[in-house]
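> run fold Putative licABCH operon regulator
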Amino acid sequence: MLGLLLRDGDWVTASALADALGVTPRSIRSYVTAANARVAPGVAVESGPQGYRAGSDGAAALRAGGDTGTPRDRLHTLVRALLDAPDGIDVFETADALHVSPATLDADLARVRGLLGGTELTLERSASRARLRGTEAAQRRLLSKLAHDEMDAGSFDLAALRRTLGEGSVGAQAFGPFKAELVARLGELGWFVNEFGIADVVMHIAIAADRTSRDRPLDAAGSTQRERPTQSQVAEIIAELSERHLGVRLGGADLQHLATLVLTRVVAPDGHEDAASGAVTSSLDPEIEAVVREVVTAAADEFLVDIAHEDFVARLALHVQNLLHRAREQAWSRNPLTRSLKSTYPMIFEVAVFIASRLQQRLGIPLPDDEIAYIAMHVGGRLERSRRADQLLTATIVCPGYYDLHELLRSSVDRSLGQAIEVVGVETRADPDWASIDTDLVLTTIDPPTTNDRIVRIQPFLTDSDVERVQAAAGRIRRSRRLARLRAELERYFEPSAFLRGLDEAAGEEGVIRGLGALLQAREVIDAEYVERTIERERLSSTAFTDALAVPHALEMTASRTAIAIGIADPSIPWGDGRVQVVALVAFSETDREAFQTVFEQFVEVFSERDSVQRLVRRGTDFNAFLDELVAVIDG
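> ok
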């Protein structure tokens, strides 16, 4: 709840929070009380007539944690106990220590088994004893999983890390200076440090130091990594800093593993772009580069995006090469921007999912959401560089001639607003032909005969408030155009007979997809294979692009025609790591390839507004009512 309120930043009703979390409004009120108790006498959550919003101490309450009675904290305490006890724990003694019944602890042990997927660990139970079996590397992966779970949205938090490792963990207060010196020393070697990755590496160093201090070093036989160039230099730095800051002497296997993480996760050649590109190319595996080039070309053709450039291929190929090393170690890198990238740039994320899918097929590496988000950052960076000038709004300045006043004004507009608008004309008459001005915006220093959204009154000498009003007008025009295109597309693509209200939570994601897919199959829009490929796409990465909307679809556009099936869930149903209330199964045909971007991005934009979602869910009792409400929301 705290995470949702902090991300939203505005008032949210109890019912909306309840829908998002899958609980009752009464539970929300008890959560608010508990959150405020964490930071008393501070305020974690403010209450008012409009609902709840994050208070000044909301972030502190989120970091505080420590409610040992909550299921998650109890689960983490239990896992730590299992990890610290090679001979296992006594179930009854542990239940007493946690102040729960043996039956509750048995249920918690079942949840522990759910955490073990992909860790190569097993939980054994014999009479009253329970123990974990598996390698030290596998146990550390489980600790890493716990630490990430403690950290909201994957962001690095030393307090959360200490909760994961235990209050007595080694050097918990030393990691700030440790991290600063590690970054400085890597910089001296001529490497640029990726700040998103360095926090993850520090977490792994903390785990290694803690386990080594408990006489649980990494087994040298378990290390499969070949020594890479400069690995010994990085290992020496980590060894020195660990001994000086943490008071722990790490073994050779630990140092090799951690140096590999540094080289594959946080560093890239420093210097200017041309120099960096040259360094990248010289260190690339030609086979990986060829695969990446092929995949990027396919993505550019499939989504009509301008990413097939040599510098983009080279940088992404180096990222994939490092990704292969991380995959061998099963040391995935967390990305704190995953959630925001997915909800704000769904189209870019979808291109990244396509690339990840093809890389998985060609190179045999599974890619979790956080790794897909890093690919999305590469894609977004390339598209930002190649954004076309014709995406700018055009503007005409109306400024009656007086010496060079109009020229000074145009210069000010270009300097302050050049990234948002392009001035294509200047009217210096006091009585211009207003009807003949057909640019997107009109910036005028005199009063126009009529007013509308595209005419903005400004001062002859541009002020900060003028700049803000022009930017706001430009934003409104762009949004209205996007949503107008969306409305036209949706009215074409919605299938009236493919509307289902009351989605069954018990069916799960696959069941919901099959149910909505059957409605489109009945209209001969798609076949059974399309439904299966939609399920495959869902397994790659959840299509819950906002806190309320999932948009399942297949990666290939093979529908006979483009159509959308809508499912409404009231109350919300689980989807991915969250819950949704609207599921839109979208089937695209090859001929509507260009419409994909319009529908995908703007549809997600509409459903990112919580009030709009509540309105659609509550009033959309049938297809016609849903469409009427959606059009009303789009039209504002």
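The first strand starts at residue 45 and ends at 48.
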